[in-house]
Amino acid sequence: xxxxxxxxxxxxxxxxxxxxxxxxxxxxxxxxxxxxxxxxxxxxxxxxxxxxxxxxxxxxxxxxxxxxxxxxxxxxxxxxxxxxxxxxxxxxxxxxxxxxxxxxxxxxxxxxxxxxxxxxxxxxxxxxxxxxxxxxxxxxxxxxxxxxxxxxxxxxxxxxxxxxxxxxxxxxxxxxxxxxxxxxxxxxxxxxxx
Length: 194
Fold this sequence. Notes:
Radius of gyration: 18 Å
Number of strands: 0
Shape: globular
Structural class: mainly alpha
Mean pLDDT: 91
CATH class of the domain at 62-192: Mainly Alpha
């Protein structure tokens, strides 16, 4: 999902999100982003001094959306497993409505190996930390170690991401009805595994 705004910066970020999620950091250039918008590379460099700065802005934008999801869920009156269920449903819905966000994160995890040593900002850290604390509110997870809570949280988020990213392929394999039936029980089935 790309935010619609008149801001040139936001247009650059939205276009770059799509290109980086489709091609990865190394496969998309500033010239590609500019060409998509019918602009020159210099117009992007005016707002973002480097490709890395644009990529960082894209990651920050994606992270902000994930932070909003977890913050809204944490503010709800639900408790324990119900709150976790709501969180996973919201994450699932977001992943389906904003597929570029999930694809970009998957690309970042795969393509970031060369940049991991020099990265100074981990944009999804707050989201992940808050997600772990949400799982820790579930009674059967409350007294587990932080490592176990973190591993389970990462598995849940990963399962949601993997399923939604692969939906087009699953539809081709299984057909629309089987995919829809599976989608309808995905979160409840995932929670049974906890």
